Amino acid sequence: MKNIYSTLFLVISLGFNINIQSQNLDADKCGFNLLSEEQKKSIVSTTNWGYGYSDLETDLGIWEQHALVDTSFIGYSELGRKLYVLNIKDESIVEEEFRVSIHARTHPNEVQGWYATNEMINILLSETVLAQRLLSKVVFSVIPMINPDGVELHKARENANGVDIESNWGTAMPEAEVEALKSFFTEKMESDLPIDVMLNMHSAYACKRYFVYHHENGTSYSYTSDEKRFIKSIQNYFEEGIEDWDYYVSWSNGTPTRYPESWFWRKYSDEVMALTYEDMNCSSAGDYEKTAFALLSGIADYFELEMLGLDYSPAISSSLNIYPNPASQSSSIHISAHTYRDVEYRIQLISTGGRIIDIPISQTSKSGSVIEFRASNLPKGLYMVKYSSEEITMLGRLLIN
Q1: Which residue of 32, 82, 108, 176 has the fewest C-beta atoms within 10 A of its own C-beta?
Q2: What percentage of the chain reaches a pLDDT higher than 90?
Q3: Using an 8 Å Cβ cutoff, are 76 and 90 in contact?
């Protein structure tokens, strides 16, 4: 999957090193897309930026089979598409202490923010030490695609009405997507487990990974102290990849009204750490597993969950490859698991109806070994591929048509 991402961004992106410092209220925190209009049209007509609404619905069919996942929707887009949410929690935990809310694809062309979010989902469902420790205290609410109309209509930054919903939060009559997200946030803030951290996942043409830091002139001194601690907690796990807290300083002229972070600050002050994260939107994009690992590990440290000193390498250096995919019933299907060291493992296929099929494995435990089997005895449909060992569980999908 990582190779697919890298190839896609080599095709669709150009790298620009832009020094972003001390931004005013009117600055565009994502930078500017310098591709020509002709290039943009060519890209979206063939790739939909690499991940569309149908891809999301397919993934939802896989995620909702996991015991830790409850899927629902928070409302509808302007054109009536469901705005899905994954609630990831350990039902065996009687009382959680924190909630993290994450949403992506506000700007459809900033798909890199979604890929980092997707890897966070993968890690949370991986049953590693990091995942178990986080889910022992934290509930994650993840909205993978808040602007599905824009994704499907090939609008780089707008929804179906041509509105940039990222800056639509201060209007008297917000767009349907904003209204749904506001209602969702309000419901959670009024619940027994309110939101403690809100991450707004984007990507920037500055070709850097960074957080949009809010100056004390627009927040408070105590909040900026928490911001610095939060960003540093995450940066500790990816020092060479995530910029320092002062790379992008916003709100130095006061608090704006038009952003989701502004909404949180004006209603809840320092109760919520609400920040925009900007991934890379250029040819250097990648390392989504490592980014997701840093984000989740930093969140664990921010909540003082005593994560320091644990070995997280299985969560960031393992991958599951399935090909061809989609496959036909006449195909020979190949599955290979690349792990940080050689381990004993098993591979199972799980149908949407819950049927479990064990895949025979020869006497080998080598990382990267290829398991091959025929699909002739498998009914057509969508399957979850489950790789499991004593240390890690990885999930993939296989479509047989």
Answers
A1: 32
A2: 49
A3: no
Distance, in Å, from the CA atom of 175 to the CA atom of 173, rounded to the nearest integer, reads 7
What pLDDT is recorded for position 358?
85
Round to whole Å and give the CA distance between 213 and 229: 12
The tokens describing 398, both together, are 């296989």
Question: Going by CATH, does the domain composed of 2-302 fall within 3.40.630.10?
Answer: yes
User: Measured between alpha carbons, how far is 95 from 244 in angstroms, rounded to an integer?
Assistant: 35
pLDDT higher than 90, residue 139: yes
Amino acid at the residue 75: G
pLDDT digits (tens, 9 = 90+) for 37-58: 554 544 555 567 889 999 999 8
Q: Strands (DSSP E) along 98-230, which ranges?
A: 98-104, 138-143, 197-204, 210-211, 213-214
Instruction: Report the C-alpha gap between 212 and 215 in whole angstroms.
Output: 10
Q: Identify whether the C-beta of residue 210 lies closer than 8 Å to the C-beta of residue 178.
A: no
Residue 279: its pLDDT value, please?
A: 96
Cis peptide before 260 (omega within 30 of 0): no
d(CA 124, CA 128): 8
Fold of domain 318-400: Immunoglobulin-like (2.60.40)
* Range(s) of the chain covered by CATH 3.40.630.10: 2-302
Q: What is the pLDDT of residues 241-260, one digit of tens each?
A: 999 999 999 999 999 999 99
Tell me the H-state helices in 125-259: 129-135, 148-152, 176-189, 221-235
Looking at residue 327, what DSSP letter applies? B
Q: Could you give the residue range(s) of every CATH 2.60.40.10 domain in the chain?
A: 318-400
